[in-house]
Write a structure and sequence with these properties.
380 residues; alpha/beta; Rossmann fold; 2 domains; seven-stranded mixed beta sheet; 14 helices; 19% strand; elongated
Length: 380
């Protein structure tokens, strides 16, 4: 694996011997046998094969690549047909063609001479263009579809029941559409307002068990991670929380993240702390190349926003309205489980039974939504 100037220098002696240099390029995200067979066919067209790897910044598909460019390049370089690998950041391989001036430029047969972006440059340089048939049924997109990668959703909250007060119905809808749902909670909510008086001494354990063993199944979580920070102390651990969230972003590589908005709906210090930590981790993850596509905050309708003094907060100004008509029961069933232990869940469940919410409001924080625009769907 070489930088472009070093690669040009390395190829100079080869040109003196009139060897046929073959160039191809692509993303090569999630290697599969189709890639290997394509590269073998390309190598057979000359004496050595150079592979250009698209940098993360030049990959135009949402949520892609799954694997960072340096790792993709290392994997491709290890394949038997490949002699040299170079990472390039341009949207097309025109600059590679001009710098390397190969004898042959190879692309998959999903291109034609009319659709190949580099065709004019190759012709001008006198480079032979060849199209190699692709291996049917093998693609990175198919692997991603089969594995659920690229359709992963992460929710980040402070307490058991936050997810049910928040986007439980939306999450259930996304799961029904093929999303793989992961959850991260920081406390067991051991200091929450209990239904029983006096509260059971193991309130936190009861709430944690209800979340992990019952609520997660009702909503459709693939994985639930519950941490052991003390309830009510997260404002003292924002930096630690940010690193933990970043670890899970790297591990899960979700395309969509749900969490609290700046006011945490109720201004609970733990909610605000989770918002701050998640927001910072999300943008750090984006800078690292994690394929984070969208960030959503919990939000409430305008009337509730006025009652909660949220009119000037993102939490009180939703811009996304998801139809959850067929999933309202999920939110109610999840809240009913939490209502065994905490009074807030009892009150929320009763209100939902009186006033059903067939549309769930959210605030999409990233990418930004133009002012006045209302979104109606979240795609996985």
């Amino acid at each position: 694996m070489l930088e472009l100037p070093a690669l040009v220098e390395a190829l100079a002696p080869v040109r003196i011997g009139h060897a046929r240099v073959v160039l191809t390029n692509g993303v090569f995200d999630l290697l599969h046998v189709g890639h290997l067979r394509f590269l073998r066919a390309a190598r057979a067209l000359g004496d050595l094969l150079v592979v250009g790897i698209n940098a993360d910044s030049s990959v135009g598909k949402p949520g892609r690549p799954i694997v960072p460019d340096v790792e993709r390049a290392e994997l491709v370089a290890a394949l038997e047909p490949v002699d040299f690998v170079v990472i390039f950041s341009e949207l097309t391989a025109d600059d590679l063609l001009r710098a390397l001036r190969p004898s042959v430029y190879v692309k998959g047969a999903d291109y034609t001479i009319d659709t190949l972006p580099e065709a004019a440059t190759a012709r001008m340089l006198g480079v032979e263009i060849q199209f190699v048939p692709l291996v049917e049924g093998h693609s990175s997109s198919a692997l991603i579809e089969a594995s659920g990668a690229g359709r992963r959703v992460l929710t980040v909250y402070a307490h058991p029941d936050d997810e049910s007060f928040g986007p439980a119905a939306v999450c259930a809808r996304l799961v029904s559409e093929g999303a793989q749902l992961h959850g991260l909670w920081f406390t067991s909510g051991e200091h929450g307002a209990p239904v029983q008086d006096p509260p059971p001494p193991n309130l936190g354990q009861l709430r944690a068990a209800a979340l992990v063993h019952e609520v997660a199944r009702v909503i459709g979580y693939h994985e639930s991670t519950l941490l052991s920070f003390e309830d009510g102390t997260l404002e003292n651990h924002v930096a630690d929380a940010e690193q933990i969230i970043l670890f899970h972003l790297r591990r899960v590589r979700p395309s969509i993240v749900f969490t609290f908005g700046p006011a945490g709906i109720t201004r609970h210090p733990d909610h605000v702390a989770v918002h701050r930590a998640t927001l910072a981790a999300f943008h750090t993850g984006r800078e690292e190349g994690i394929p984070l596509r969208e960030l959503y905050f919990d939000a409430v309708p305008p009337k509730v926003a006025r009652d909660l003094d949220l009119a000037n907060q993102h939490d009180g100004n939703p811009n996304t309205f998801v139809d959850v008509t067929d999933f309202q029961h999920v939110k109610r069933d999840a809240l009913a489980i939490h209502a065994r232990y905490v009074a807030d869940a009892v009150e929320r469940l009763e209100r939902l039974q009186r006033e059903p919410m067939p549309v769930e409001p959210l605030y999409r924080a990233w990418p930004a939504v133009p002012e006045g625009t209302q979104l109606r769907t979240i795609a996985v």
